[in-house]
Amino acid sequence: MESRKEDGVDEVTTQPTEPSPPAAADLLSGLCDDVLVHILGLARHARDAVRTGALSRRWRGLWRRAPALRFASRCWFKCGGSPHGFIAFVDDTLALHAVRSGDGGVLEQLVICLNMFDDACRNQQLVPPSIGAAERWILYAARHGVKSFHFNLSLPDDKVEVHVHDHEGENDDEDHEHDEVNGDDDVGRKRTPVLALNELPSSAKLEAMYLDLNFAWVRLPPTVVFASLKDLTLECTKVSGDNVLLLARLVSSACCPSLRKLSMCFITLSQQQNLLLEASVLTELSLDVMDGMRSLELKTPSLRVLRIEDCEHLQSLATSAPSLKKLHIKNCERLVSLMASAPMLEKLSCVKNRSLIIDRHFPSVSRLKLDLYSHGYAYDGDSNYGGIKLLQRHSSASCLSIDLHASMVRTWFTPSDPNN
Hints:
The protein is of the alpha/beta class. It has eight helices and 15 strands. It is elongated and about 75 Å long.
């Protein structure tokens, strides 16, 4: 296993050697600290920044003041490192950087990609330490004033049985609920990992956060506040029970009063859920593959762009968005109700929503996109009703785009007489 003190390069002492041949002057080391620290913040991998401490006394410890650190497990594995060594290196590096946080070493950008799906580390025993590391690093970003945090988690193949221990034996009932949702058996059951973020602290400095959690169940904090968060992306996350309400709170003005851009993709809500989002300054919202979201209500007076795709359970959408300029709805085949107050809407795209009938007029629409189905297509004869209604209601649109779905019929002729 790799040493947990990769920072040891800062303590390197050299043995006396014969004078080296004359060389060009070291102009780089002559630069001021601020410039060198900025250069270290551009390193593609934190290990490269840490190793500069071995160059000379001039560089020793400077990396601890770098404004950005990036960790990529794939780069680590390519160099022969182990999964446990990578986790230890990230832990130690962050701990050492935190020591200098009060001396001009504030970490503005933190990027961590933990990919345990690599062929070299497809070991199910790596799941618990990976989940534990994910929890520590997310908490670190909130506690230490990180401005931009990007975290991507890829666990070993979930087709193999995974036995994940509880955190100190807590929330057994909630884990049992997760097992029921996933249809797990009592004997040799596969258990989806649980990421405990219910004690996530508030942060006044975090401005952008991206979390891809590999479809782990997540326990969300009930009272956290991110006063400066403007851009939030959540991907590959599962929530159940009260956590669905906490998810709605997490993306609301109560938690993120400055949130302007929100993207949620591959989110699983256990059973069928109604989601209410209230965000007073939110301007852009993107929802993709929100499994289990039966209805969506938006109270977003500043929203300008709304994009919804592949939400197969969505049946009802209600939005009060007087500033909405662009509305894109695609492949939501169960959506039958759209109640929208959008007097400023300019661009409307409605594709592959064959149950949706928009029987109202948006007076400002100038760009319209829809789809129509030719005779004999797989869908029934009423598939074009919604599209025709849109055309009739918005005949004054200056730009029209239509996706025409045509059936493909192949006729095979088999001669009865092989001599003919």
